[in-house]
Amino acid sequence: MKALVPRTVLAALELFTGIGAVYGAAMLVTDAWHLPSEYLDPLPVHGWVLPGVALLAVVAVPMLGAAALALLGSRRAAGAAMAAGALLVGWILVQLAVIGPRMALQAVMLGMGVAVAAAGWWWRDALRTAARS
Length: 133
Hints:
Elements: H1 4-29, H2 49-72, H3 77-99, H4 104-132
Helix pairs in contact: 1-2, 1-4, 2-3, 3-4
């Protein structure tokens, strides 16, 4: 029972983040946000399609995959959460290094990456504690 709370928190964080990343990827691919193309000057791309596809591949798919593992109660879910959280943190850090701080959403998503990784750690710890009991 103790492991259910971290698992539920973990799945909720991953679903929220994964769905948000799918939305963000769709907005980038369709250029619905009309972000300035100058943000992309340090990159060898001239439009938002490839960054949108990359967001989908690097953040959305791992987050939603980790959420599915958490919802299924897989013993691999905690590790998947830590990896998905680390990928999101890395994504934001690279984004900050390349285009700089542009919006508050970057800080929020950095926090979400840390929260997902921490929740994965918490669930792994809860599972280990339950196994010893």
